[in-house]
Amino acid sequence: xxxxxxxxxxxxxxxxxQNLYSSDSINRKIDKNFYKFLAVEGAVLTGAISYLxxxxxxxxxxxxxxxxxxxxxxxQIDKLGHFYASYLESNVGYSLMRKFNFSEKQAxxxxxxxxxxxxxxxxxxxxxxxxxxxxLSDMVANALGSVFFITQQKVFGEQLIMPKLSFSRxxxxxxxxxxxxxxxLLSEFVYDYNGYTYWFSFSPNKVFKFRKIPNWINIAIGxxxxxxxxxxxxxxxxxxxVLPYYNRHRQFYLSLDIDFSEIKTxxxxxxxxxxxxxxxxxxxxxxxFSNKKVKGYFFYF
Length: 301
Prior knowledge:
By secondary structure, the chain is an alpha+beta fold. The protein has helices at residues 2-16, 33-56, 77-99, 104-111, 114-126, 136-156, 185-191, 204-208, 268-277, and strands at residues 161-167, 196-202, 217-226, 237-238, 241-242, 249-258, 284-290, 293-300. It has 2 domains: 1-158, no CATH class; 160-301, no CATH class. The chain has 9 helices and 8 strands. The strands form 2 sheets. A 6-stranded antiparallel sheet has the order 1-2-3-6-7-8. A two-stranded antiparallel ribbon has the order 4-5.
């Protein structure tokens, strides 16, 4: 859940630095705006740490460093969240360092490691508070997110497979007395894992050389989970109330998608919008495979 807040802050950071670099920055040795980038990133991290200390851990007892095994938690949706956030941060870090005229090697290994660098402090904070703990599986997911980006960039010179995210408000939050967040979008985005689907999106043309399919048309394979009212198993009571029974299960998806990085535009505004949309799964026709059944959606988010 802390990851959700960290992701929101990073999106704010990503939007903030979009106007820092100019089109001719590549001609400079190191664009002066790189230092503005560092300042903005520092402010975002400071805000995240302040939030964790004053809000997230406020009612938790400080304890000695300890580990916490949450690999099975939330049917691994949380692990995919760590992977996705780390990948996003690494991708943005690399792209910005290239724009600031750092060498390919510097950008790839320093910028490309940004996901692991940014997510690691959170685990050390967790390690000293009751109810949390240092999660090795979180660290592995964080590392894999950065490695996934670096490997593709090193081997292919581009990102052939893009991790993406979609979120919609689930039917559960409003029926469980605040267990999955308050009755609003932002709160449920932080607390309700049922609303998340993580995707791996790729171009059939680039991967399988299907030349008749435009590069901007993608196939996406997704994973989600549903019916979850607890980390490892569903809770029966919350705040003195009996909770409804829901079937806890995994969901797999096959869908169409759009690669906005392949849509060229002369508009700087649209280019920025497309950069952000490249990390989000667009609602398009989708098949869901779960509970030994197949469902179809005209639009799934």
